[in-house]
Amino acid sequence: MKNTIVFGYNEYAKEIASNFTEASMPVMIYVIDELNYRHAKESGYDVELVELDDDWLEIGERFDVLDVICFCALDDDAQNVFLTISLRAEYSKLNIIALATSKDSANKLHLAGANKVISKLETTANVIVESLEKPAVVEIMNDILYHNKELKLAEYTISKTSPLANKRFNDITLHNEFNIIILAVADQELEAEFSFTPQGYNHAIDAGDVLVVMGREDDLNQFEKAIS
Amino acid sequence: MGFISKGFIDLSYTLQASNSYQRTKQFFYSLLEDDTYPYKRYFDYMMMLLILSSVMLLIRQVKYPLPEYAVIYNDFIISFVFLIEYLLRLWVYSSVSKELIHQYEKDEFLGLKFRPLKALAKAARIKWKYISSVYAIIDLLAIMPFFHQLRILRLFILFRAFKIFRYTKSLQQFAGVLASKKFEFFTLMIFATVMISMAAVLIYIAEANNKDSAINTMFEAFYWSFVTLSTVGYGDFVPVTDLGRTVAMVIIISGIAVISFMTSIVVSAFTEQLDGIKEQKIITDITKMKRFYLICGYSEVSAIVTKRLQKDGIDFVVLEKDPQKVIEANKSKMTAVCADPAKQETYGNYGIDLKKQVVSVLCLEDTDVQNIYTALTIRSMHPDIKILSYLHENKNRKKLSIAGVNHIIYTQELVGILAREFSGKPVAFEAIEALRSQSTDVVIEELLIDKRILNQRKRIIDLNIHTTKLILLGVYRKMVFHFNPDREMELHEGDILVVIGFDMMIKEYSINLHKAIA
Predict the structure, then answer these.
(1) Among A47, A57, A8, A51, which Cα is nearest to A27's?
(2) In what order do the strands lie in the sheet with B471-477?
(3) pTM of the complete model beyond 0.95
(4) Which residues in A lie closer than 8 A to residue B501 (C-beta atoms)?
(5) Which entry of A63, B224, B334, B426 is 20 to 30 Å from B435 by CA?
(6) Chain A partners of B440 at a C-beta cutoff of 8 Å?
């Protein structure tokens, strides 16, 4: 099971941590001040009080670096950038997700080596605009992504022995039998460049590619069995 | 009650009660006087065209004789149109029948004998007030060529040029701005008149009897001092005596003073009125919009939201009470108003019709307190309007709901869920994010099944979507999503197709859907 590390204990960090504990995934929280340390402790989390200029060797000792996700959710963008850069300097393979206030600091966090940056303002604005212009899409996406409804989004990595391997995307008909829709295919060779299905009609599927599919839970399970 | 006065009263009541009469009067009132009436513009353009053609004919006839039809057009047709317009304006200015009824009911109430003459006199006074207004006088003079073939009356055509003021708002505003400085202009006029008169008299005394001087009459003296004071100085009349030249020196200096004073009056009038003019323009812009989103508060989130709405070409109006932020918003060329969204009068002042114009309200202010207050204000004015609000602190969530907010956006929550989704399914998540953020050409869109489509296509398979390179995710019907529907599924009016594909292809597909099947 994947481990999750959250840096900071503000409202954002709390939401992230609670989302993972709800999904019964282990969460470790690192804070840089006494007050938050007490708050997090009271809420029953594993907490560690650290200095921002720590050498972070402890993370390597405690977790398997390839199997942990770090969320940098400190209050200040500058602190987040510093934290991201320190972590990246120590661990080149660590999966780092950082929160940014604006587009400006999002760019800096990308440069600092974050694998993924979540821009708070942009995310909010996108959700607002989408809910104005495409209410049905928002409803459906929320159901699929956030609520545990029947309809689900899933991703499957194609193995060498899969019946889909070495086939052109256009030729695949297998999914029709299971009433699912293939949304996208991510090519490992192209370093997770996406070919959305309309564009990727001629995409040749190799072992290691990732299919993004949507469907009902039962159908998805059967489809997974069929392609493995 | 006399026979005549009874007739008056009966007629008045009939007119007041007549729907078609009131409607006709209202129509002409809107066409002539109501700036917010959409067709008034076309009427104004037509009148301006008439005026311009008339002035052009006037210029033409200075050197060349006009053909017969042009004379008829200029002297009769245009004048006739103007006459009709004048009478209509006089008609809609006030209501005589209302006056009569008012007087009648008053007399009745006081137990007096009905005095129709008193009412008529009052009605006439009101009409006279219109007739004696500057605009009405210009209108009347512009009709003049109609009455006479006298050459001097041709000059009255120039009054038609003045009529232009009536039909162009910017000229009216210009005149209005200058009128705000009436007192200053008046003072300046007095000063200039005194200076010109004194200089004229002095120069006449000094030069009229001098053989070398060209200034011989009082009119020439006036003409000279006017030309000199205005700093134009043609040089056709020049003082030759010492006294005359001394007068010239004094009047040249005062001329500079007069000109600079005048310039400063005009400039200060405009700077003082500039905000008002700008605001007037914004109000006109807002009343012209048919449907728009109302954004309360220009916060950081609003800045990004408005940018996206602008990109998609969607109308919106920003209400923000901090003038500094309004300036910032205006830099991005949007309709932003410096007004408090939490005050009811704001909506009246700026002509915002919540019921007819506003699609939904977005409360994006900097604190929850402001958002709640604004939401309550709007909810109290319109019980059904859709309100979306940004939530700053989770503890205020319930308060926002009570205030009547339909949709609450809480960034922390969004980020938390995003984080979980991303860690579980990073590829799928990126794909969905790319679709939603519209950063690529591939988008997820909604297509509404309307009557026109339904007339020719009854089932999913008739939509021919399977032959295109678009993905039909499903059909959204009455709050229920039918995922990947069967091709035989029947379509209903109001169904929403959720489609993924290239932006351009979806647009083209939507057009094709509406086309008739050959």
Answers:
(1) A47
(2) B442-448, B496-502, B471-477, B480-483
(3) no
(4) 198
(5) B334
(6) 194, 196
